[in-house]
Design brief:
Elements lengths: L2 H5 L1 E3 L1 H8 L8 H17 L4 E3 L6 H12 L5 E6 L3 H13 L7 H21 L2 E6 L5 E7 L2 E5 L15
Helix pairs in contact: 2-3, 3-4, 4-6, 5-6
Length: 167
């Protein structure tokens, strides 16, 4: 079985926006968000495997994690973080220079804080969580299974400390 078969459909609002408006994807953000929610609800209703690309900064992902959990889905969360919000801002700027899409700095700052805040409730919902620090080379910081910490690096990045207290 290929990993793609196991994951099922990837629901990525940015990709949906590119499909809706190839010349100006940012103008389709709202429509893409609605379409992503529609697809997620349909996939859950039909019992199909799927993955979601998300910043975890909104409540809809947590809500749909809970709904999927109630429908006996196994929830696996890969959370990728950076040491600080400035690194996110710098990486978006670099991506824009290479032809990628722009995100307003105030949106990046907001999403960074909300994402970290939403990580704690996501840990309580997910069956398995793998936390990755992508500040330099990707590094698995911790793995949590059924609420139990089964792996943790010796030196926890500061951004991950609040959710890994007691590691």
């Amino acid at each position: 079985m290929q990993m793609r078969d196991w994951l099922g459909e990837l629901v990525d609002p940015d990709q949906i926006a590119r499909e809706l408006k190839p010349d100006n994807p940012r103008s389709a953000d709202l429509s893409a968000g609605r379409e992503a929610v529609r697809r997620i609800r349909s996939l859950i209703r039909n019992g199909e495997n799927f993955a979601i690309e998300t910043t975890l900064s909104g409540s809809f992902v947590l809500k749909h994690m809970e709904i999927a959990k109630e429908k006996n889905y196994e929830i696996v969360l890969y959370y990728i973080g950076l040491q600080d919000v400035q690194m996110h801002i710098d990486r978006v700027a670099s991506r824009v220079e290479q032809g990628g899409h722009w995100i307003a700095e105030e949106d990046i700052r907001y999403r960074y804080g909300e994402s970290l805040k939403n990580l704690t409730p996501a840990l309580a919902i997910a069956d398995q969580v793998i936390i990755i620090d992508n500040t330099y080379e990707p590094l698995i910081v911790a793995e949590i299974v059924q609420g139990h910490l089964i792996y943790c690096v010796e030196f926890i990045p500061a951004w991950a400390n609040p959710v890994l207290v007691g590691c």
